[in-house]
Amino acid sequence: MFAKFLFTLFFIPLLVISAEVDKKDFFMQGDFSEIIRFDRLSYKNGSIEEDASQALQSIVSKIKMHQSAKEEIFVSIIGHAAPQKNDDRNSALEQSKNFAEDVEDTMHAQGVDANLTFLSYQADDAPLFSDETSSSRALSNRVMVTLYVSQNKDIDGDGVSNAQDRCPKTPLGTKVGSDGCTIHTIVMLTDHYKEHNAIVVATKRNETIVAAPKDYVLLESAQTPVEVLSNMPEAEIKALFGEVISNPNQKATRFTLYFDALKLSKESEDLVLPKVIEAIQKSKNAFVSVIGHTDTIGSDSFNEKRGEERAAVIARKIKESGAKYLYLSAESYGEYNLAIKTQDEEKQVLNRRVEILIR
């Protein structure tokens, strides 16, 4: 039978705080996986030329492609203008600034993140073309765009690149999620000796079955898909679960409550159930598993349902008690895990029970 683990908690979204990046330092580091220098964008009479305007659309598309891939990028936009013979240098500097700002504004209007662009401008004392005439000098009026794509560095060695890592200083060996932050919930199936033992792990996105010893699932949030990862290395098992595995006192606390039909026995109600509530309250972040059982009187389907009903009775009492827990699951084993082995259609009060495991 499967012990079903239904993950239905609502998580409070993390507050993401972004540090201001010194873009000049970024360019000076020089450690890039790619540097793309685009063709010049020419300006004439203070406006971008038609072919340059079309080229700018292609540049924007290229930048947005890298941006949507969540790569760590910056875009350098440099305006150039050549002083005319009778003009002062300040006039050319102002013109080059206008060119660069025009390109940057177009990028931002079309979806390029404003935090990714770095603007500069200069008056070219050494123009790109001849300085013999004003028209030849005007050909030097341009904007140069360069895209810098950073290496996907992983400063803390957790397998998540710096660009996506919200927690860039996690200790080496820490289990992290796709955001680089520590995962606090790991579901692993230990070595077991019962047939058909497995755990169903479900979130709002999907569910999966952990069925082999040492296989495990990393739970990031209720909205994150889950998948089974195979064969956790012994060193990791020891590091993560060593204290629990080696210390029997840290293993699941078990209680058994007995039923007559759907009514809890007086002894279980008065003596055992209060101990269950107390144990949950004392546990930190308790995982509570409630499993209903029956004897062999009745059909398989009837006993499966009866086990579910008994488990639901106890789960409801736990909830109504106000005891705090992390997870609570209620399942049925029906007649397939008898405390006292009997023949079919044989009444046995000790099999009419609910088991509670608190981890």
Number of strands: 16
Distance between the termini: 20 Å
Derived structural class: alpha+beta
For the record, the CATH architecture of the largest domain stands as 2-Layer Sandwich
Description:
The protein has 359 residues and is of the alpha+beta class. It has three domains: 1-16 and 171-250, no CATH class; 23-150, 60s Ribosomal Protein L30, Chain: A (2-Layer Sandwich); 252-358, 60s Ribosomal Protein L30, Chain: A (2-Layer Sandwich), CATH 3.30.1330.60. The protein is built from seven helices and 16 strands. It has helices at 23-29, 50-68, 89-109, 134-138, 234-246, 266-282, 300-321; strands at 2-6, 32-37, 41-44, 47-48, 73-81, 117-123, 142-150, 185-188, 198-202, 207-210, 216-219, 253-260, 263-264, 287-293, 327-334, 353-358. The strands form four sheets. Strands 2, 3, 4, 5, 6 and 7 form a six-stranded mixed sheet that branches. It has a five-stranded mixed sheet with strand order 13-12-16-14-15. The chain starts with a strand and ends with a strand. The model is unreliable at 1-24 (pLDDT under 50).
